Amino acid sequence: MTALLSRRDIILAAVGAAIASAGTAGFPAALFAQSTVTPEQFLALSEKLTQTSKLDLGIATTILGGFLATGHGDEIALLVGENFNSFTPIANAIVAAWYSGLYTTVPKGSGASNHPLRGRVQRVATFDQALVWNALTFTKPWGECGGETGYWSDPPAT
Q1: pLDDT tens digits, residue range 11-28?
Q2: Residue 105 contacts residue 123 (beta carbons within 8 Å)
Q3: Residue burial 70-105, b: 16+ Cβ < 10 Å; e: rest
Q4: Sign of the C-alpha dihedral computed for residues 141, 142, 148 and 149 taken in this order
Q5: Residues near 45 by beta carbon (within 8 Å), at least 6 away in sequence
């Protein structure tokens, strides 16, 4: 007996294949090789700025790649070094990226990296691990079950 594939199964397989083929969000290895900031250092900086522990290294690598692609490597290197200042625009942008799960980048081959705005796009680094879900205790990411059927009918524990 053969099992029929549902439309949902086909869509999930296609999305999974797309995510798996994306790798490190398409950032060339040369981009990371030219940087003085490693993903591990960026992760430690992110944990310091967000006052959060156990952030994901893969997401940190993706967000760092976006900052490097848009020309912010030197600013991040200053934050990682002895000149740490959490009240800078780049520090705010790092925190915003972790809370929203979004980062700005320049797509490969666009030739727009020398212009401050042309060719920049926003990409999703994470959805369900965005820190906004930790800040909003009354909600959760879409599609994540909160309990048994009807769990929401009881008032929350105080």
Answers
A1: 766 665 555 445 445 555
A2: yes
A3: bebbebbbbbbeeeeeeeeebbebbbebbbbbbbbb
A4: positive
A5: 37, 76, 79, 80, 94
Angle at 101 between CA 100 and CA 102, to 5 degrees: 90
The closest of 66, 74, 149 to 102, measured between CA atoms, is 66
Write phi, then psi, for 105 (nearest 5 degrees). -145, 175
Query: Model pTM?
Result: 0.65
Instruction: Give residue 100's Cα distance to chain centre.
Output: 8
Q: Tell me the pLDDT tens digit for each residue of 107-157.
A: 765 555 555 556 788 888 998 888 988 888 777 776 666 677 887 788 877
Amino acid at 21: S
pLDDT exceeds 60 at position 68: yes
Residue with tokens 């994540």: 144
Query: Tokens standing for 39?
Result: 């993903």
85's tokens: 């200042």
